Amino acid sequence: MTVRRSLVLGVVLLAAFVALGVFVSGSPGGLDALLGELLQDRWRGPAGVVAEVVSAVLGPVLPVLFAVALAIGALVLWRRGDTDRAGIVLRVLLLLGLCRATSWLAKPVFARERPRVYPDFSYPSGHVVSVASTGVAAVVLCTLLAAHLVAVVTRVAVVATLLCAASRVVLDVHWLTDTVGAVLAVSGIALLSAVALRLSPPVRRGVASSA
Description:
This is Phosphatidic acid phosphatase. It holds the Pfam family PAP2. By secondary structure, the chain is mainly alpha-helical. The chain contains 8 helices and 2 strands. It is 72% helix and 2% strand. A two-stranded antiparallel sheet has the order 1-2. Helix 5 packs antiparallel against helix 8.
């Protein structure tokens, strides 16, 4: 993907995130309301127990652990004299932080209420933002330093994000659109930040790397 396309797509995704947040700021309706009725009180049963475990593993702890790993990795590379790769890892760390910050900054702006009584606002889902941010950062890192792992890491990131989103909806602490908004926000910020931080894949033979 070229730099121009990354910028355009990033802006479009962020605009979609804002538009969705404005659209769902009132009373829940459509698919949100339908799922809310279908899953009402399911979080109190076995499904809720499973969702709680998934939510505990795939949540805010992931970007913290990955950030620590990136910081250590950058330090090791720097001490070995590999400043180029150390710089890439540090920029990926910054990308991770920018993506993760979307939920902290956006929640007070939209101030959407949760499906049930629960701390903090609802849009976008902080758990999904955490998992998606970690996945995006990992894919970008592999794209630049371990291209042979990109496909596998991408699949793992997508599955982990979907599982996290499902767990938050089953637990009745997020509307479906909260999870969709989280993915839109992270994707938009990631595309724009990758360009700003010079983390876009190199261009070969006049065509940007498919990764």
